[in-house]
């Protein structure tokens, strides 16, 4: 029976990616190995996040743990775990993390053909109150055998070979695209495995939710202001949109992907380039949105066509359902 097969024939993320990669005759399992190290990092952070409250209590007894080491903050801990996992995979050459000002260049003995850009624990303002947070990552291939440089990651998002995020929420979910659609895997804690639960996610063509930090409204530009006004007071007889804003990009984008709608982090007078980082926030989420049938726009162009000049560069971003992003594109076009 189909139902029995489901329970006894588990599609783990490793099996899924092995299947996908076997379509490429030149594939030698490197990507699968890299991904399994990313998955390890996600499982570690998931367990750390779930124990975070407890670690705090222990911390209160004194700032050091029983080994006499100072307790590391969750975001620093997560970064250390990902950097170690990625380096030890033997499949990476350049790493860019939100937590580290400089890129990490892997030593020759451990080098491999991939470059990984990531935010190990995004949504820092939500860590201490138990609201969903996540890890975001994007993967490029190294296209030469010379000494790696930051130029190897200062490439447009459309050159990424894979992108994904892991959300540490009411369940732990990993959402991944290797360029053939978007697939969601849920961590089965009893198995310690991510199991395919959301195959081929497609974002609704139009949504009824908008997601933005409206506290910044006084500093917005014309098109963003007009768009949000339209969400609240539509003049074409359509119903007003609902507002949802967690303040964790992973949670807000995840909801947008599943329910449809639009997520905005626009430019404002105080932050002319917005807040979110091109390499490890804007690009991976834009990659996933396009793969799911949605769009991602910067206010000027397709987000994935940006060519970053610095590893921690920022950009405004509008992403979500195809039709909703079309509307904001029209407002920016009118404004020119
Ligand atoms: P962080 O990297 O410091 O955690 O900031 C990124 C977060 C995103 O997850 C979220 O979309 C955004 O910042 C929220 O910003 P704001 O609090 O300005 O609305
Ligand atoms: Mg971040």
From TrEMBL:
Q: Which cofactor does it need?
A: Mg(2+)
Q: Cellular location of this protein?
A: Cytoplasm
- What are the record keywords, sorted? Carbohydrate metabolism, Cytoplasm, Hydrolase, Magnesium, Metal-binding
Reaction(s) catalysed by this chain, per the record, are:
beta-D-fructose 1,6-bisphosphate + H2O = beta-D-fructose 6-phosphate + phosphate
Q: Name one Pfam family in it.
A: FBPase
The UniProt record lists the Fructose-1-6-bisphosphatase class I N-terminal domain at: 11-199
Enzyme superclass (EC): hydrolase
Is the keyword Hydrolase assigned to this protein? Answer: yes
> What's the chief localization of this chain?
cytoplasm
| EC code(s) of this entry | 3.1.3.11
What domain of life? Eukaryota
Please tell me whether the keyword Membrane is annotated for this protein.
no
Indicate the segments forming the Fructose-1-6-bisphosphatase class 1 C-terminal domain, all copies. Answer: 203-332
* Record-stated family: Belongs to the FBPase class 1 family.
Against NCBIfam families, the record matches this protein to:
PRK09293.1-1, PRK09293.1-3
- The name of this protein is Fructose-1,6-bisphosphatase, cytosolic
The organism named in the record is Camelina sativa (False flax)
